[in-house]
Please model this.
Amino acid sequence: MSPRTLYDKLIDSHTVARLDDHTGPGAEVLLYIDRTILNEYTSPQAFSGLREAGRKVWQPDAALMVVDHVNPTAPNRNAEMPDAGGANQVRYFGDNSRDFGIELLDVLHPLQGIEHVVAPELGFILPGMVVGAGDSHTTTYGALGALGFGIGTSDIEHYLATSTLRYRRMRTMRVSLDGALLPGVTAKDVVMALIAKIGASGATGYAIEFAGEGLAALSVEGRMTICNMAVEAGARGVIMAPDQAVFDYVADKPRAPKGALWDQAVRYWSTLRTDADAVFDREVRLDADEIEPLVTWGISPDQAVPIGGRVPDPATEPDAARRKDMQRALAYMDLAPGTALEEVTIQRAFIGSCTNARLSDLREAAKVVRGRHVAAGVRGMVVPGSSSVRRAAEAEGLDRVFIEAGFEWRQSGCSLCLAMNDDVLEPGERCASSTNRNFEGRQGAGGRTHLMSPAMVAAAAIAGRLTDVRRLAKQGA
Amino acid sequence: MQPFTTVTGPAAALPAANTDTDVIMPKQFLKGIDRSGLDNGTLHNLRFDATGARRSDFVLNRPEWADTRFLVVGPNFGCGSSREHAVWGLLQLGIRAIIGTSFAGIFNDNAANNGLLLISLEPGEVHTLSTLAADPARNRLAIDLPAQSISGDGGPRFAFDISPLRKDALMRGLDAIGTTLDQAGAIRAFEARHHAAQPWLVPHAR
Ligand code: SF4
Model:
């Protein structure tokens, strides 16, 4: 057999049947899906479809239901939803869990959290799996050596009824991170650098495999940040070859295999890598030591510059359509061309989301704020990625660090990442945010989002404006 | 799913790049548990101002674009969130096909699953159609799926590519789940082999 990429191997090993006579990219196959995670806002119509057609769920134990998008994150929350629509979705979610026999992590469940944070920490996702789920950031699981990709509601219904998807093979892109990151530069900056380099549609039609020595040096949680946000470059599926760090990460998770089964699994997982001579449709290289902490200035995740930079001038953009997009972005963001990013003042700071609210993220942010205080006029929120992260952080005293610095220490959920609950920006408010999307209105109608790493958000909250976390670190406590 | 064969009607140009699904269907319209009533939410902040009044200058609100059937869009249309509400809403607004240079992956699959035809053309071709769509006197297009062609009023005619599987499903308005369940035996056999080879993958009842 000719040399294959890891992506090819996973697709081949999960192909139930071919649906046409093509083989390469674009070929359609019936693909077996090992696991899915369901949330309350993209799944209701899928269950309604099953009910209308009188269909059952093929494999209820392979699915996990997590309430995360619409629930409140108030520190003293109860099971009440902030609005009637969300309450209705959560109620129907519970009905569907009961009627179709699928495990549910409800709002007050001790394991509740953002689906992409919860599933790995449970050991629900294992290397070698193919995971399709009703949320675009399902790519997160690539960090564990599981091919993850988002699907829409019709495909959720298709999955639930058949444990398969009608799947079109992607082209393959390898992104190599060469060398080592400089101090103060994080996984978030790596993925933002990739998006800035190839554009918001640079990976459309591709599955990405991340590789390289710079990647191997990153923690598994850092790798999750990269896989998570790679979807903002359009990647439809992300994978990293699992290594010892991944096996160590998975080993103590409650649902990981144990004993002889574990040994057998690790032997197989160790074979999950791209063959030496395999050819990718596209290769992209990132020099790790050239990456700096990045911030976005616009309304698309690829509109990002190093924190020391300035808001670009549309007048210098030769392409007319792009020039117009830049002008629209600057008008929405209320920024003048040439403004130094470090002069941009903020009213809100948000540390949260499935990109950056794991324990290591909170530790990094806490390091920055320890012994300091949020600037006057800034409201800072910390929303841990899961209830488990929240408890672990509290066990280390991180909650005290944040609270003493003037941050709100909240319960877990998607929260201000998409503002489907009662956490929203007011029109015109500007937010330093550790999330993944700076779209118009994403965090609230008229709200203005600057994406960056959690440590950079922490630094911005302290300074009251966007700032280089490395400078703050030097002035250090 | 409504079958698609030949559809004729006005086209509207939405040339901005990276029109994301938050723009196509803002989050306040995602609170339902069924697919209905999403037409009002579609492109809501472009169609309506903060008071809820129609923006008279927005193309879809102008009389010459009443009954718009097609959109001619900028690159990377449909990026962002996986919300299928975006596709349901566009269909409920009467949109049957969208023409652009590139579409985001999940949006593309969602469209196929609901009978919304997405057509990718070369930038020059999209530009030509966009210019036509912006001209009230010449904004009518005809899309012939069986012949895989788009034509403008007395004007250009472009051929487009589509996978034979998707074409067939669109033309017949097929139920994908029913088709797949015809292969239930093959799925069951695959699953048994797959779980025998990797027994740690067998999901456990809770
Ligand atoms: S945290 Fe944000 S990106 Fe992640 S699942 Fe929730 S809404 Fe989506």
